[in-house]
Amino acid sequence: MKKGIIIMAMAGLFLSPGIVEAKGRFSVTPRVGVNLSNIGGSGSLDVYSTRLGFTGGVDAEYQFTPQLGVSLGVAYSQQGCNTNEVWNKKDFDRDISWRIKSHQLHYLKAPLLLNFHVGKGFTLKAGAEVGYLLAARDKGPEYGYWGKWTGTILVPTGNYGLSYYPDGNKAPEPSPDGLYGEVQEFNEKGSEDVIETYHHFYCAIPVGLSYEYKHFVADARFHFNLVKIVRHSPDNLMDNRCFSITLGYRFNL
Asked: How deeply is 36 buried, as exposed, middle or buried, from its count of CB atoms within 10 A (0-12, 13-18, 19+)?
């Protein structure tokens, strides 16, 4: 008799209106937003600063109960950092300056999250995500010449002649003491493919909070990176640091 009462009570709880409504509830949420990302850890430079990038994707959630669901998503994510790096090197009798405005990393990511619906539209989220590096570029290298000159400044043959910069401006003559201090920039909108510098595999732990109002979902997540991003350099422990804010719309299916 007691067993029968317990079984009936459990069945009643399972078949209560709230549970029936939530059981098997499936939804899809497209979302777009921004990333605030930086590169930190051992090997990073003081000149690195936060970069604003785009992110967008879609999450599909299955709710087991009104309080608990699991979601799988796919997202495109722009990460990296802004910088003021200047690299110098010798090129025959010239000193060349290479300036970088930003390190731009482009990922395709797949987050798997547990969603804890805590009430009044709020949801706590935590899980894991893996990804693949689609592209990596050093954006806006600016090249310039400075230092001790020994005659007419030369540029590669075929680039506007031997005494002109590639932008068409005539190269300056050296000062009487052979020094010329001002950097002459001529490629400020260029970029360089550096994808082989970075690990192609990405792995992180996303933790976040979302708020839903009339199917609109505002979502904020911090991504704790688990993989060092630089390849072929075991002493370089730089990692991605990313905070994303998105706005989406939930479609209940």
From this structure: middle
User: Whole-angstrom Cα distance, residue 142 to residue 185?
Assistant: 6
Model confidence pLDDT, tens digit, residues 232-242? 777 778 888 99
Give the per-residue pLDDT at 176. Answer: 41
Task: State the pTM of this model.
Answer: 0.72
Long-range own/partner contacts, residues 18-26 (CB < 8 A, 24 or more apart): 18/66, 19/65, 19/66, 21/66, 22/63, 22/64, 22/65, 22/66, 23/63, 23/64, 23/65, 24/62, 24/63, 25/62, 25/63, 25/69, 25/252, 26/60, 26/61, 26/62, 26/63, 26/252, 26/253
Task: List the one residue out of 62, 28, 30 whose CA is nearest residue 246.
Answer: 30
